[in-house]
C-alpha cells in the first residue's frame, strides 16, 4: 500500500505544500463536477484562494495540475480500500468487499466517487492508482486458485466498467427501483470469475470491514 508522504520540515516548505494541496483540491472539485477541464487558470487560482502567479510555482500547465489531481484522487481511493481490506485473507472476499465498499463511498466520500464516475474508465490502462491495485487483486486471486483468469487486462476492463456503471446508478436522482446493489454486482462478478453461485452469494454478503472514513469537513 502506498503511504502518504512525510509532512514538510520547515515553514516555507509547509506553506508551499499547503498551496499545492489547495490547487489540487480545487482541481479535484472541478473534476468531480465535470468531465471537461475547460476552465481558466485564473478561475482555478481563485477557487484555491491563491494568487494567479502562484499557480506557476507549482504547475506548468492546467493539464499537469489535473493529472496530479486525478492521480491524488485515485491513490486516495486505492489506499482507503487497501486499508479496509488489509485483514481479509480470502482474495475472493477482498475483491467482493472492494466492490461493496466503493458503493458505500458514494455516501462517505462523494467527491472521490464523482471523480471515479466521470474519469475512471480512462484510467484503466494507467500504471498507478486504481488499475494496478485491481489487477494485483485479480492476479492474487487467480494465483491462489480462487479465480479463473485467462486474460487479466480484459478482465480488468470488464470489471472496471461494471464498477463505474454501478457508481453511476448510485448517483441517479432518484435511484431506479431496479438499480443493482453492491452485493448483487459483487456476486455477479464473482460468478463471472469462476466461483459457484452459492459460494459467490455467500461471499458477497459477508460483513464488511467498517466504519468507512468520513469525508473531510
From TrEMBL:
Domain called HTH tetR-type: residue spans: 17-77
Keywords: DNA-binding
Keyword flag Methyltransferase: no
Superkingdom of the source species: Bacteria
PROSITE patterns in alphabetical order: HTH_TETR_2 (PS50977)
Signal peptide bounds: none
DNA-binding region, residue intervals: 40-59
GO molecular function, one term: DNA binding
InterPro entries the record matches: Homeodomain-like_sf (IPR009057), HTH-type_Tx_Regulator (IPR050624), HTH_TetR (IPR001647), TetR_C_40 (IPR049513)
One Pfam family from the record: TetR_C_40
Keyword Cytoplasm: no
PANTHER family, A to Z: ACREF/ENVCD OPERON REPRESSOR-RELATED, ACREF_ENVCD OPERON REPRESSOR-RELATED
Protein name, per record: Transcriptional regulator, TetR family
